[in-house]
Amino acid sequence: MEVCGGQTHAILRWGLDQLLPPVVRLIHGPGCPVCVTPAACIDLALKLARRPDVVLCSYGDMLRVPGSDPGQDLLAVRAAGGDVQLLTSPLQAIALARRHPDRRVVFLAVGFETTAPATALLARQAKALALPNLSLLVAHVRVVPAMEAILADPASEVQAFLAAGHVAAVMGTRQLEQLVERHRVPVVVSGFDPAELMAGVLEAVRQLEAGEARLSNAYARVVTPEGNRAAQALIDAVFEPADRPWRGLGVLPQGGLALRPAYRHLDAAALEPAVAAGDDSDPRLCISGRILRGLALPPECPAFGGACTPQRPLGAPMVSSEGACAAYHRYRR
């Protein structure tokens, strides 16, 4: 299983899976933060975005992810008059907050350990500037707990992982070494171009044939054992690990990041009464939950390419530019 959605798109784009012998089968993990953001979080974002005193901002893909109601996303709220804005950098939220001093600017913060440092920097600057009208709706998730959950699933067929090179570049390889020790499954850190991915597959196959389970780094030009310590320090200063629901996987122990007490005054969740847990079950005809757990491939979904397309998505894996369904729709149709 490749962990990252960027790896999935590269595999499909270059047809790497079709070059492998039938005995080697690639399955796709939940490695897309947009895809795994739970419906309850989207529901809260929608609720905040409908308030006339709120400017809600986030990355582009998040604006199209449905909540519990498949017909409702942030773009629909904007079409109905809500102030929903697209950002390419979290720090743009500071300019928004200064431009709208009489309104509350809420940044919907998603992503793995790769985007968490930028959100942490935003939180630190907001605190230093004492901005009174900036809040964060935090939905950051951690990759290793998801890999643990997949391995713990009795239905899982994963025999080896291609770990996400960009996450490892930030966090280093120590957590992955511990994962290998606990589960005795080969883990190979891989990059994103065809040669790097195939080198990762080859190393995983060699380990399996030798009956070994080790951590290997096939992306050494970027990933070091210690990772990016400055980025880790930023994450650690602002966030702490917390149990968090993943769409398709349920609540994962230590599966996300929460604001530390010194930054909880920025928490947008405090602006609204608690939202009941949204319905994360698959929409009718859509099997996105099974796809996110690596138990099915997108073409096996009865809605794929018919009732569900990138223009009219039913599930998050078709919405996101890194989603597995979007990859199959783009490269295999």
Mind sketching the topology for me?
Layout: H1 5-14, H2 16-19, H3 33-36, H4 39-49, E1 54-58, H5 74-79, E2 83-86, H6 92-99, E3 104-111, H7 116-129, E4 134-140, H8 143-152, E5 161-164, H9 165-171, H10 174-183, E6 187-190, H11 194-210, E7 215-217, H12 229-238, E8 239-246, E9 250-259, H13 288-292, H14 316-319, H15 324-331
Parallel strand pairs: 1-2, 1-3, 3-4, 5-6, 6-7
Antiparallel strand pairs: 8-9
Helix pairs in contact: 1-15, 7-12, 8-10
Structure characterization notes:
This protein is of the alpha/beta class. It is built from 15 helices and nine strands. A four-stranded parallel beta sheet has the order 2-1-3-4, with helices on both faces. Strand 3, helix 7 and strand 4 form a beta-alpha-beta unit. Helix 7 packs across helix 12 and helix 8 packs parallel to helix 10. The longest helix is centred in the middle third of the chain and has 17 residues. The chain is globular and about 65 Å long. The model has no long low-confidence stretch (mean pLDDT 92).
